Amino acid sequence: MIAFVVVAACGKEQSLEGPYRSNVCDYAPYAEGSLFEYEQTGGTPADTIHYTLRASGDTSLNGEPYILLEDDATGGFSLFRCNGGEYMQLVDVSSLPNAPEEPVRTVYLRDDLPRGGSWTETLPLTVPGLGELALTLRYTIVEKGTVKVVLGKEYKDVIGVQMDVSMPPLVLPQVLSTSFFAKGVGLIQADTEEDTTRLKAYTIR
């Protein structure tokens, strides 16, 4: 189908972030050398996948600073940065059918909004036979300052973000994922209809 599912899923692994600074990137502390071990369960057929994200170092794109994240399971990488409470990811989806050739930039988390706060972004897609359509991503803060237990470990100051997608007339509004971020740690769990990704262990440099 159209590539929006992959774009959203990449939020867990494919992102670009600037250097970690206290009280600036509290929900994504990706300093060089930091490691994040994840367990993904579910899928069809059901399976369990383990992978590690490593913050490999600083890089830049169009003059903007980022930190490079590498995934040891697929060999893939992503770029991530944050600024002013906004957490941005840049995802290359050019190999997917009908996807934009340029990297897709989206703000997947805002730690400056209260519970219930939301924001939307629109991505252009070209669909054969239909022409140019707009994919709308709507993010909503569904939890703020809560406690969440993941694989037996308790995390505090958690923010939950629900992502809804729509692309009339092909895709009606629907929930694509809900992700949870802990202060000082980053992504601790991500739920989709097909699978769940949980943080097993981490080392922050």
Concise structural overview:
Helices cover 3% and strands 60% of the residues. By secondary structure, it is mainly β.
Describe, in plain words, how this protein is organized in 3D.
This protein has 205 residues and is mainly beta. The protein has one domain: YmcC-like fold. It is 3% helix and 60% strand. It has one helix and twelve strands. Strands 6-5-4-3-2-1-12-11-10-9-8-7 form a twelve-stranded antiparallel sheet. The longest helix has 6 residues, at 4-9. The N and C termini lie far apart (40 Å).
Topology:
Blueprint: H1 4-9, E1 35-42, E2 47-61, E3 64-71, E4 77-83, E5 86-91, E6 104-110, E7 118-127, E8 131-150, E9 153-167, E10 171-182, E11 186-191, E12 195-203
Antiparallel strand pairs: 1-2, 1-12, 2-3, 3-4, 4-5, 5-6, 7-8, 8-9, 9-10, 10-11, 11-12
Report on the biggest sheet. 12 strands, antiparallel
Structural class estimated from helices and strands: mainly beta
What's the CATH C level? Mainly Beta
Give the number of domains. Answer: 1
In terms of DSSP E residues, the strand content is over 45%
Low-confidence stretches: 1-23
| Radius of gyration, CA atoms, in whole angstroms | 16 Å
**CATH architectural name:** Beta Barrel
Q: Give me the number of helical elements.
A: 1
Number of DSSP strands?
A: 12
Element string (H = helix, E = strand): HEEEEEEEEEEEE
Give the overall pLDDT as a whole number: 83
Helical content (DSSP H or I, runs of 4+): under 10%
Order of adjacent strands in the largest pleated sheet: 6-5-4-3-2-1-12-11-10-9-8-7
Termini separation: 40 Å
CATH fold node name: YmcC-like fold
